[in-house]
């Protein structure tokens, strides 16, 4: 094992005299190695990198196209929704106006109905008052008539004697008989 490590250590000390060997100077070898590696990668990896970039470009373009289609569909749906909203707002305004006019019409009809009912009640009240007045007047008339009749009977009974009473009855019977003949 010592021989193997000695051989690598001895490679480090090789001279620069035109023979093939390793350059251990890091500052001198790094740019050269990087340029060689980059050159090989560019030469051999150009096609692969180009294909990867083309695929990526196509995916991005497809994503953009799909997004634009979705945006177009969304804009179309938005316009339809706005049109529907305007239509619903117009219908709501019409319902509101119709509702207000219907309310006003119902209010007017109710006021007219109540007014007619009040007029009828007023007429019923007036008729009832008139009826009660007539009834009271008739009752008063009956009492006055009864009192007058009682007074007249009292006066007749006190003033009439039997003979005058019989003559009055005969005269009344004669008047009734004459009236009966006239009507027949």
List the helices and strands and how they pair.
Elements: H1 2-12, H2 26-159, H3 162-183
Please summarize what this structure is.
The chain is an all-alpha fold and 184 residues long. It has 3 helices and no strands.
Which percent band covers the strand fraction? under 5%
| Secondary-structure element string | HHH
User: Cα distance, first to last residue?
Assistant: 179 Å
General form: rod-shaped
Number of helices: 3
**Major sheet details:** none
Per DSSP E runs of 2 or more residues, the count of β-strands stands at 0
- What is the average of the pLDDT values? 82
Low-pLDDT stretches are 7-15
Taking all Cα atoms into account, the compactness measure Rg is: 68 Å
Q: Helix amount, in percent?
A: over 70%
Structural class: mainly alpha
Q: Could you list some keywords that capture this structure?
A:
single chain; 184 residues; mainly alpha; 3 helices; 0% strand; rod-shaped
């Amino acid at each position: 094992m010592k021989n193997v490590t000695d051989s690598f250590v001895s490679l480090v000390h090789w001279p620069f005299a035109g023979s093939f060997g390793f350059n251990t100077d890091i500052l001198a070898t790094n740019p050269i190695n990087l340029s060689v590696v980059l050159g090989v990668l560019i030469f051999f990896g150009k096609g692969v990198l180009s294909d990867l970039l083309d695929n990526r470009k196509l995916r991005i373009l497809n994503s953009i196209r799909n997004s634009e289609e979705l945006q177009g569909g969304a804009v179309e749906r938005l316009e339809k929704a706005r049109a529907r909203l305007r239509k619903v707002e117009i219908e709501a305004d019409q319902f509101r106006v119709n509702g207000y006019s219907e309310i006003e019409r119902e209010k007017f009809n109710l006021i007219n109905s109540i007014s007619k009912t009040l007029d009828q009640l007023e007429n019923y009240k007036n008729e009832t008052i008139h009826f009660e007045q007539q009834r009271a007047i008739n009752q008063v008339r009956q009492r006055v008539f009864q009192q007058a009749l009682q007074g007249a009977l009292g006066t007749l009974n006190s003033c009439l004697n039997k003979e005058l009473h019989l003559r009055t009855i005969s005269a009344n019977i004669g008047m009734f008989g004459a009236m009966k003949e006239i009507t027949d």
